[in-house]
Amino acid sequence: MEIKDIKKTAEREISLVKTLKELESFENKYLGKKGILTRILRSLKELNPEERKKIGKEANELKEFLQKEIERKRGQLQEKHIEEKEKKEWIDITMPGKKIERGHLHPITLVRTQIEDIFQKMGFSVVEGPEIENEWYNFDALNIPKEHPARDMWDTFWLRQNELKMQNSKLKMSQRLLLRTHTSPVQIHYMEANKPPIRIIAPGRIFRYEATDASHEINFYQVEGLMIDKNISIANFKFIMEEFFKEFFGRKTEIRLRPSYFPFTEPSFEIDVKCSICNGKGCSVCSYRGWIEMAGAGMVHPNVLKAVKINPEEWQGFAFGLGLDRLTMMKYKINDIRLFYSGDLRFLKQF
Amino acid sequence: MLFSYDWLQSFFPKKLPAPKKLAELLTLHSFEVQEIKKVDGDLVFDIDVTPNRSDCFSHLGIARECSAFTNLKFKIPACRAGRQNAKLKEDKKRKIKDFIEVEVENKNDCLRYMGGVLLDVKVGESPEWIKKRLIACGVQPINNIVDIMNYTMLETGQPLHAFDLDKLKTQNPACRTGRHSLKLKTKIIIRRAKRGEKIKTLDDKEYILDKNILVIADQEKPLAIAGIKGGKAAEITSKTKNIFIESANFAPTLIRRASRSLNLRTDASFRFEHGLDPNLAEEGLKKAVLLVQEIAEGTVAGKRIDIYSKKVKPKKIKIYLSKLEKLSGIKIPAKEVKTVLKRLNFKIIKEKGDLIEVEIPTYRQDLVIPEDLIEEILRIYGYEKINSCPPQISLTFPQKNPELSAQRKVKEILKELGFTEVYNYSFISKEDTRFFNKEYIVELENPVSEKFQYLRPSLLVNLLKNAKHNLKFFEAFKMFEVGKIFQKQGSKILEKRTLAGIIVGEKKEEGFFVLKGYIDSLFDSLGITDWFYDEFQPRPEDMKKLFWHINKSAEIKVNQEKIGFLGEVSERILHHFDIRVPIYAFEMDFEKLIEFITEEKEYQEIPKFPSAVRDIALLVPMYEKTENVQKKIFAAGGDLLIDVDLFDIYFGEGLPEGKKNLAFHLIFQAKDRTLSSEEIDNLMKKIIYSLEENPEWEVRR
Lengths: 351, 701
Known about the structure:
Chain A has helices at 3-16, 20-31, 36-42, 49-88, 107-121, 135-138, 162-165, 170-175, 185-193, 234-249, 302-307, 324-332, 345-348; strands at residues 125-126, 132-134, 177-179, 198-207, 219-229, 255-262, 265-274, 291-300, 316-323. Chain A is 42% helix and 19% strand. Chain A is α+β, with helices and mostly antiparallel strands. Chain A is elongated and about 125 Å long. The model of chain A has no long low-confidence stretch (mean pLDDT 92). By secondary structure, chain B is an alpha+beta fold. Chain B is built from 21 helices and 32 strands. In chain B, helix 2 packs across helix 3 (59-70), helix 4 (128-136) crosses helix 5 (144-156) and helix 12 (334-343) packs across helix 13. The model of chain B is unreliable at 174-182 (pLDDT under 50). Chain B is elongated, with a radius of gyration of 41 Å. Chains A and B meet through helix 5, strand 1, strand 4, strand 5 and helix 10 of A and helix 2, helix 8, helix 11, helix 13 and helix 14 of B.
């Protein structure tokens, strides 16, 4: 038989192949150990050189051709086979996914981390201070005199110290222990140990003696900030705060400063963020004020600098205290501060 | 503090901005307006006056602020008692000294004492306009005399008190013999109360006084608690004819202490404790006397009493415009600065180049240093005019905080292990303290309630409460907390950051080992290498023994150092919290833990040659520790034995009583070759031989 006849037959046969099994027998028939083409190629040596050359070439070409055809066919059949198989393998994709238990971080941790990251990018170091303080660090050094009504701004938990009751001298009074009512004492600790320039934030838990309700707790969190250098101004403070709030709430966020009073800053401000719900028009979220109070702040009072032996003629700067709980509540639209300390997994698993 | 819009308007001939606009201006330049309420046709502002501004605890003060930021001219309102421009008319014949004499015992307690006498007053109801304003400001009208005192206080900020002159007692019997009505001269003494002295106040409450409390007394008894509240003894009633009006200035600290110790706070004590300008006493008295003359038709006795030894004079403060610029970050033209100062009634007394010196009215006692003045200029000028500007500072990296990064890492790992983070209160109740050694527990002097009376000496108590709560909704969960605990040590109080967690929902047989697995995983992720669990051997006084199941708890040790505890929580504790499922818990000293955390990791070459696994099973006594068996296998196996993995424990049916079967996978591997089975067989023989040196151990073949 002529090679071209073999080719014709093979072409016709392969076009009729319907399954992978049939393809396999087809392959065997032509290219197998005893296949038609294999035999021809093997018998070449019996031919004279001229014929060997001619037939050899034709046979090899046909072999290549068939191999390609078989691969092509195999591809087609395999695809068809997979398609049919998968058609039969139906599952109900609306069935629930397998439960993979994962843990959750507390929302305040999440927000705290975010705040730390933003300030660290602006070159602020993150430091911490003790939760138990004495009167000097919590009040006196911060220019909050004893017996002054300004102290009423911070309702304080005092620790029972029987050994101190005996000696009631002025000096001892300053040693009286309390639960810090703000993170501002960290300013004092830090400035005692470090010389300016200073750029820190100090997140931490603070305590207030008060009745709890949806917006008041006996323990909560604050982030203190302090920046001291030769020329740090209110305009610089406004810049840092704007950058922070824009990073935190989004670039469109607007802030404003309004006057306030803290004994340890002069001038003192309150920082308001424009309510994002009503865009400043007033709604229930901002108690119809259009703005939401986010932090107390001001330029560090010269008396505070003097208390830590920093020359106020040479150095100046700002300090602020951000309410971490308030920020977290804003971010996640949480309406009750007590949820943070409830340990309720139905709340915690949402974060 | 409440302020009437109508009243504020009365200070201004021109119209004030509309209420909403005025509130906004007040918020941006002076004090936050919390709320505007409608009361009987008037609008009432609830203003958050800051404690440094005692001059603004009055309509006069707020009006001055309004004038400063609106630039509207303001004047003290005329007396609105029917007649325009009413003037004070003193009866020259009847002199005050014929009726009363005042003695201030200590001028440091009472910086100024002023008084006026009005005769033949008609006590009755106040006119509508007074009542309306009082009600708007939350003060209950009583009678015209008392109302005028309150009205004057709300307008000027000076607290006043009226006494029924005829009720004051004198001990001078000679006087009593005279004609009773007008000649009787009495004496008022401003003195410290005697210990145990009593007073009945206007609200019919009795207070026991002491030497730290200042009183206004006649020669017999206290008539009023100075600066705080009047007494019943000299109360103004409908029968009152002659009155004595007091307008004084008391030492703020004294009033504050007295008010606290008596737990009695009044509008007057609030103002006094914040420190008032003694010069205000005069304005207050004048206004009150005039109003009584006009409304209660009293006759004013000639002259006033005024005991004022150290007259307060205006302060002078210098500021440099360069300092203003340096602090604010903006340049404000000198002309504008001066305009603002004038609007605040600060008198410019000197100008020299960069320097401006001003005289501050005495009512602004809060202003002391140049920075105070800078704040005044800026807030009136407007903080909104300060444009933000990036600071010019040297480029420095923030310092690293290893403790903080450790905290983040630990939390992240535990989260990945399926633990949920909680934040609990730093407090525990009195009842919760029973499982702790009392002498270590820190107590609050002033707890909000018994529930929060002590500082937590451990994180576990509150975690168990969390467990109890969450068992209502979930069967299985894992929680952790990182927080401070507090312990007394001698006279010191230690504050330690601690890590604790609980697992709920594990079976009793497995719980301990599940927990141990989590801790292993935590340590491994933290790069800690040398840790183990040591048997807990409590001393008799150790309170921890109450907390943990004695046989299912262990000390966690890293590098031989104790850093914490883990185990099953004792049933006695669970009973206390009414929990009916086993709970596995751990608690670690976080500060110690982080000492062992390391970021260092070094790549170990992936083994080129295959490992071989052989199993071994042996019978050992029930109370034998697995660790002992493992140690023995490792010791005999040598370097080629790279792991010993317990995969089965069995006891009970089919085994001798008191024995258990332990089964291990032994994994052998060499770095430089494939081990031959002969080599491994020899090692196994050596291991078996070594194990059976112990007569109670039997290797099963």
